[in-house]
Amino acid sequence: MDIVSTPTAMRCSFCSFCLTWLLVACVTSTTREFFPSPENPRYTPERGSHAVREYLRLRCPELKPPKRDSATIFARVRVDTSGKATSAELTGTSGDDIMDGVIGTVAAQLDLAANTPRRAEYRASIAYACRDTVAARITVAP
Question: Is the pTM of this model over 0.90?
Answer without folding.
Answer: no
